[in-house]
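Quick one: structure tokens for this chain, please?
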Amino acid sequence: MTHNKLQKKVTELLTVRGNGFSMVSSNRRGRPDIAGHIGVISIFIECKVGKDTLRPAQRTTLLDINRKKGIGIQLHEKHWDIFEAYVKRIEDEIDKYLPCNLVGMPIPEELVVTDHTKVAIAEGFVSI
């Protein structure tokens, strides 16, 4: 699957369940590929295919979104089924009138954006 096809698939899913649109061009490094919402819940998604991984600016942006209580995730093509189930879960939680700060929490492990330090340790750049 190509990066553009994955973005299109995400946008189509969010359009059915909420409203998704592609952030194809931006004047800011690290801007997520997709910004959308499911009901009142905003979601920001960085799409990855093949061996592609998050760049530092992308990681920083998504971590900042999460720190500010938004939902910022990384979606690798191999985790599509998990993402699809996560979107459905968010929709169900909204239908149950869960408080906004609880909807979508916790984020599935496969979609979580790992902190810079943990990535550096895992890749052997930092030793403990």
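Residues 9 and 84 are 10 Å apart (CA to CA).
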